Amino acid sequence: MCRLFGLNAGHTPVHIEYWLEEAPDSVAAESHRNPDGTGVGWFTADGAPHLRKQPDPAYRDPDFAAEAKAIDAITVITHVRAATTGHNTVDNCHPFLMEDRCDIGEPVGPAVSRPAGAPPRSAHPRPGHGRTGSNGLDGDRAQ
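Above: the chain's sequence. Below: its structure in C-alpha cell form.
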C-alpha cells in the first residue's frame, strides 16, 4: 500500500531532511517497502511550488539524500508508491502539480493549495497522463 506524509509548518520554513531521510518511517525507509516510485512536493516561503518524483525508490537514488538536505519548505507532501495499477513511469508517481496545488490524486486525499498570500502562478502546467489506482477512472493529472 502506498504511503503518504504531509507537513504544514505555518509561515516559517523548516528543513525537511529528517522526514525524507532520517526518521524511522522516512520516505527513504518507506521506499524499501514501496519501491515503485517516490514523490515529494513542497512550497517554499514565497509560495512557489516544487516537485521531485521518479518511478524508482528513494533509497536507490544517490541524488535523493543530497537534494533532501537542500530543501526548506513551509508545506510538504510526500508519496511512496506500491503499484497496484499502471506502469512504473514518472506520470504515475504522485504528487502532481496542478495550477497552484500539489495534488495527491482523488480519491486518496485532498490537494494542498498554495499558501495564503502567495503570488499567483503565471503559467499553468501541461496535462499529464498518469494511470494509477488512486487517479480514479480518468487518470489525467498534471506534471
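Strands lie at 3-8, 14-15, 38-43, 49-54, 72-73, 75-80, 96-98, 101-103, 112-113.
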